[in-house]
């Protein structure tokens, strides 16, 4: 699989990584053996980048990855984690003292002395512009607790604020065929600054898998059931903020853009890979088959560029008016 430089980290990572929210919680029950099998399949498919967070299963995702890598010390995997969502979401909590506690917990979970990449996990907007926050993160780098740091954002203005800081290594942002706003300013600014772009929610919480219908039902503990109106966290994290029924209509049109033998999931990921400035895409997966299918998107050649005009047309018709102003 193609390897790209992950921004200011200088590390090479696979264009298709693995998001591991689903290995912790919020997507229904997780079987430990299946979680390990997903990680194994990812590695076998050429994936060299895992994204996790301290809040995923309250540390279970980190622990699963840590155990997996301890048994495979020869693997060269970059692990990015995130911190901050286990505390009350007020700017006052983003301090060096709290950062040390949060990082130490993640280091224990992952079984490592130094974390490859730590991202602020969608903190309150003022945090992205607070110099003391970046000074604290720089201190953690100097102390050897973390190698690099970045941010995960909900909105493009938050991304631009972080990119403007000279030491931000990466920005993680929702980017998919139903969420195009990052193409306007964030990706060009990140490329100019040498900041890596980690594209999350690439399948719009599964909508772009093409497997759902109006009759699809999700488990009660799946965020696609309990967060459709933003009851638990930003609604943009669930189906990218898109109305489920409207999304199904758009997916049908999206599928019409594709050549025979290419799945909607593969095409959706391939389209993101083709966007200038993207470092890696991090689809989640609950099964070995999903992992392999997602990774195979890297082998679709120029498909992402070939369907670009159609993606933009569908976005303009279905989503721009509601989605573009909000995030």
UniProtKB/TrEMBL annotation:
Pfam families: Aldo_ket_red. Residues 16-299 form the NADP-dependent oxidoreductase domain. SUPFAM superfamilies: NAD(P)-linked oxidoreductase. Signal peptide: none annotated. CDD domains: AKR_AKR11C1 (cd19086). Coiled coil: none annotated. This is Aldo/keto reductase.
